[in-house]
Structure to design on (446 residues):
């Protein structure tokens, strides 16, 4: 069930790898959206705003662990591409050890700092309690999130993007069912939506691991595979930490943006929340192509096939651009219909605000798609420092643009800070990618 991406048509391999990823990422967004839709439609717009106000802090913490778990599995993919079976097993053991240690420490700190961070972000008083209740539960479940991301990341590193999809679909259905049970039957409010997410992630991770242990020889770890080696740990950390910090650095900019947005009141926060959920779903094709190119690049880098990496990135860039144009047009044209999924027909004041967001962001999806391709290609070949610095560039642009443009032209200025940040990150990523690939192909073997 593993797939060697070092032979065969690059476009066919990437597309076939991307399709299950895309379906899985869409389902993951759907069960994230399920929280938002059910909360907005059953509890109210203020509850929707309460969940939305937690988004940047969730991104700050969970994004760090998504980047970290993705980073440690880059080494797994490289060892798999190099046909190093023992190295793959040792990498799985090391990745598990590192993720367990860092997630345990972060859970405690995140829960303690939840209240102060929400205050620091100027969270409106009418949604503060709901935001706090939701966020504390999400942070308690950090271990469950890391567990699922790690197991699915390892499986993808082996070239299989279909197995995580199966269990993610099951988890998505479970999440939606638990949303209704916890919110409508047990009256747990927004905290119920958070518990539904955590339990679903944990279930998905457990099921995925049980399946993998039966189907993949690489998961049959031996005692010596667990022997800790600082040099081998550093091989993982030198990729994982920059990838993790890249997400968190980006998240700091989003927190600044959310802080400015909070000053416009709970209606603007609710509109931005609904728009961001639509946005996250719309960019999944580009995001999935990016994950595919990371695995593809990592395996081919391990095999020393550098020209093949360049060919795959070129074709991914074209594919991503086509999807970006299509999805950008869709969210702009069907914006009112998408918005009513979240707030129903009783809040027409939200729709113009969502439309503003979709016009400013949807028209720039091409830039974001290229950002995904170049960033993941660099990370796949182990060059994680530049993506981290591109995240810093994104932070600077968003941190300056959100308050300056927000103060000058209001809500639309906050919306514009996103595409401006994408430009700020894509330029250094593109320069770095073309420089690195030129150097690699000058000494490649295939």
């Amino acid at each position: 069930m593993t797939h060697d991406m070092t032979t065969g048509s690059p476009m066919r391999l990437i597309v076939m790898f991307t399709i299950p990823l895309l379906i899985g990422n869409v389902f993951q967004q759907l069960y994230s959206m399920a929280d938002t839709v059910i909360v907005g439609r059953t509890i109210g717009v203020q509850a929707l705003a309460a969940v939305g106000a937690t988004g940047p802090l969730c991104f700050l913490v969970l994004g760090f662990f998504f980047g970290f778990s993705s980073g440690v599995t880059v080494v797994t993919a490289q060892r798999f591409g190099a046909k190093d079976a023992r190295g793959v097993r040792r990498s799985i053991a090391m990745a598990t050890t590192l993720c367990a240690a860092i997630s345990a420490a972060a859970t405690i700190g995140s829960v303690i700092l939840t209240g102060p961070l929400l205050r620091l972000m100027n969270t409106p008083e009418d949604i503060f309690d709901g935001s706090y209740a939701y966020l504390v539960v999400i942070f308690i479940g950090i271990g469950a999130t890391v567990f699922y991301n790690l197991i699915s990341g390892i499986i993808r590193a082996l070239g299989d993007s279909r197995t995580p999809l199966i269990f993610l679909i099951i988890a998505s259905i479970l999440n939606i069912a638990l949303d209704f049970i916890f919110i409508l039957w047990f009256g747990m409010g927004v905290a119920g939506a958070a518990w539904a997410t955590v339990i679903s992630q944990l279930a998905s991770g457990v099921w995925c691991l049980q399946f993998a242990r039966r189907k993949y020889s690489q998961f049959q770890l031996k005692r010596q595979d667990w022997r800790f080696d600082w040099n081998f740990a550093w091989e993982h950390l030198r990729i994982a930490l920059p990838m993790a910090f890249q997400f968190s650095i980006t998240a700091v900019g989003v927190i600044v943006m959310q802080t400015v947005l909070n000053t416009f009141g709970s209606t603007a926060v609710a509109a931005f929340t609904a728009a961001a959920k639509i946005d996250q779903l719309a960019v999944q094709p580009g995001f999935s192509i990016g994950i595919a190119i990371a695995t593809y690049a990592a395996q081919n880098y391990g095999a020393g096939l550098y020209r093949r990496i360049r060919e795959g990135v070129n074709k991914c860039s074209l594919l991503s651009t086509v999807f970006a144009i299509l999805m950008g047009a869709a969210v702009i044209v069907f914006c009112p219909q998408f918005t009513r999924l979240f707030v129903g027909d009783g809040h027409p004041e939200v729709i113009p605000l969502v439309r503003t967001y979709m016009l400013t962001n949807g028209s720039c999806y091409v830039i974001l798609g290229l950002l995904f391709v170049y960033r993941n290609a660099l990370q796949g070949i182990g060059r994680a420092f530049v993506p981290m610095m591109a995240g810093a560039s994104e932070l600077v642009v968003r941190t300056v643009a959100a308050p300056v443009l927000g103060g000058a032209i209001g809500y639309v200025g906050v919306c514009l800070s996103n595409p401006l940040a994408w430009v700020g990150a894509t330029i250094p990523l593109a320069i770095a990618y073309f420089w690195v690939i030129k150097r690699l192909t000058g000494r490649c073997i295939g």
